[in-house]
Write the structure tokens for this entry.
Amino acid sequence: MENTQTQQRVSSAKVSKMSEKKKDMISGYLYVAPFFIVFGIIGLYPAIFSIVLAFQKWNGLGEMDYVGFSNFAIVLQDPLFWKSLYNTVIIGLMGTAPQLIVGIILAYFLNMAVIRFTNFFRVTIFMPYITSMVAVALVFGVFFSTNESALANYVIGWFGIDPISWKTSEWGAKIAISLMVFWRWVGYNTIIYLAGLQSIPKDLYEAATIDGANKVQQFLHITIPLLKPFIILTVFMSTVGALQLFAEPTVFLGASAFNRDEAMTVVMYLYRDAFNLGSFGTASATAVLLLIIIIAAAALNTWLTSGVGNKKKRGVK
Amino acid sequence: MKQNNKKTSRSGTLPVYIVLTLASILSLFPFYWMFVMATQPSAAYNSIPPTLLPGGMLIENFQKVLDTIPFFQAMWNTVLLCTTVTVAVLIISSLSGFAFAKFHFPGKNFLFICILLTMVIPPQLGLIPQYYLISQLGWLDTLLGAGVLFLLNPLGIFLMRQYISQSVPDELMEAAKLDGCSNFRIYRSIVLPIIKPAFATLGIIVFTLVWGEFLWQFTVLRDPSSYTLQVALASLNNAFRVDFGMLLSGVFWATVPLIVIFLIFNKWFISSITEGSIK
Amino acid sequence: MKFKKSLLMVLLLSFSAILFACSEDNKSASSEEKVSLDFWVFGATNYESLAEEYEKENPDVEINIKTSELGDHHNSLFTAISAGTGAPDLAMIEVDQLDRYREAQDRFVNLYDLGAEDIKDQYLDWKWNGAENGEGDFLFGLPTDIGPKAMYYHTDVFEEAGLPTDPDKVSELISTSEAFADAAGKILDATDKPMVDSMEMAFRANMDALQVSYFNRDDELLLSESDNGVKEAYDYAVELDLQGYVGSFEMWTPEWANALNKGGFGVEMAPAWLKGYMTENAPEGAGKWRVTTLPTQFAGNWGGSYIAIPSETEYSEEAYEFSKWLLSPENQLESFVDSGLFPSAPEVYEMEEFKNNSDEYFGGQNTAKYFAEAAKQIPEVYKGPKYVTVNNEILTALRNVQEGGDPEKEWEDAVTRIEGLLKK
């Protein structure tokens, strides 16, 4: 009985050797199809529409006029565009780079077998991502109040720093918003790293312990290299997210968000063009420019990260 | 679960506890404050210095919310929307992630890059064409219209690809194939059990994302009976005559179910990969 | 056979999605006979209860109201009108938002075609004309509420400065912009508090009263014209600030609300809609605030709306009939009493209930009377579609001045920025 089964298996494996590859191919296409079907329905048209719009003058209601590259010229000559790009990059660096480092550390702690109450900590550290923006805006608004007795000013007073007007000064606004971005997304990245840590087979650590590697060595030589695909993922996503920053500054600044330039980001700049100025052409041109910047930045960052801790080439193929 | 760390002394863990506790306090504080505001009269919102202790209006504020908006219906709609979207995203992502991780087919890398590129389009600008599409498809006021946008989740595919390529051993797949398993059978009986923790991670991220999103849902859902929580809550926020106590009570009670759901999913995190792969 | 299963899976997925959509959709079939009107409103109105009343009187009409916050409301309306699909049968449009639709006249029903000429006399002229096109042969909407500005003043602050606290005496004393500045001086000396809460309000004092501001009807920028009033309004605000009469309480911030609550500044120049906010969010100010008329040269309008009918509707007649009923003087009185929407039909000002209206919060004063007086003095204004954005640049300049910027340089920078904006 057992014998015949093995025989069958061997023979069928031989016969279908060629078609097995083909079947895998078809399965591959079939399994990625759902995403592309949905994208074809809902994603493709807006993307093309935005690119076409970048070459038109359109206020959202009347006729479109083809204007060639003049929208790009207007945007590139606008000092506010460059200011918003500068703001975006600065807030991105201050708000997201520390996030990734802290995220890895927290995830590593949460994944340690000796630590108890990890359930509790996992929930609380993920809480900022769940907490509604209304509440976040409220808390950060009070903490970084323009009022001289505001909590943030009280804290910096310990270090002998004079009160800062957090919503209207060049660096005050950037620092406050960066902290908000950091606070809101660090738990999110922690959870992704945690998923990464859990995909690392435990026996690797056991082997390392037997070989006499200490905790720090294990972290540097096992955890970081094996976590690298996830690090690359979060770096990529944080780069994209940072360059598309919109919600935190608009909520933090409230009514004056679109009137001031200390913390205006590129997406706020294009949103203002489209919905406040009725200039969808320049808004779309800005979006196209942003697209190019994001692709460049994401590629650069991903490339840089791929180089970090390159022990064994095991990352993204 | 084999615990290699057990041998290390407990004393070394104290700094870890301190860091985690500090992180928890900082993370929880705004949520706590939201609860405080939900128990206070509206004017407490503006008080300087801020109010830090709960007041006695917990029930009263929530009663006002219930009188103003169809809270529970909106919650039901939200649960329905989030569950459907989450399940769909998990299926789409794990299938694609499986394909990208374990199959070879021409154009694979190109398609993968295409998926990542869909992330970089700023969502604010796509609003008008997307709205136009949805209305042409007749999906305004439907949960399908409100949810379809979220099915595009490049993060999910990336996460699943990574997880599957690291935690599903090729040998296991080969063996299954020799046994005559179809690729779908492998997906269902080998891949799915192994990637449970990744499902929990992605699931909670997607669920939360949809739960908290406002702009798109607001644009698509116009009929009050189809409102989701965020859309319904928005009508409490009226600058000329806003009652902050009521508003934050609404926001607070709209967040509580999420926490409950998180706690339920949380159990899945614990099941480590060893349980899945080595039976 | 192996892929058949996976194909089935994909099919199943798309099927369940479609099923899901259909199950949501079958409620519209029930009301075959009835005319169903979608009506989008923003802010606090009593239109829900009035609509119920209308439904009772007209059993064949059903009205679905969607209420949202001001910004969200106008964004989703713009999206629908822009996409040309999914707009409601009736929509409330705030006065500053109306101008952006002027170029897209064809997206709305001309109410003059439905006989709106007949009810024109019921409403204030300036308000009515604000919804007409340049030629005066197209009407976008019927007037809902208006926002005539009056002066809210804190009696404790006034008393401490040795100023009168009786509304009529206050308006008698502060009847010109110079007198306003004089009073501000006394308040600063005696109480160390600013007269005006913010630069925006100091600027608005004259701005809201301007018949011509940034643009003419052809949307040409007028800032470089010699007789343009914007610079004067700017200079007045700068002057007040120089003297220390202007605080830095930006509207709607907690600091501002706190100052309202505690009497952190002397006066707030605002329309009647502020009352609702104060009652709810500045409880300690109860009995301390009073309302009186502003100096004539500050008389202006701030806010208020129209109800328009997008041309997509199948029921323009029914929609018009309903809005005509909703905005009749009698119902405007009800909206005023219930929700504080200030009537645009002057007839209401003579009604007993309006005259006898008293505000608990304002120490039993009949504040409505002062707003009604102001309503009659308001000039007809044209703002133009880019008013708000252009205005924001000037406000930025003013805030910079307050933080120590040079007034002339800030002005010139703002004008440069505005010229850049208008190229878009």
Notes: Confidence is low (pLDDT under 50) at residues 1-31 of chain C.
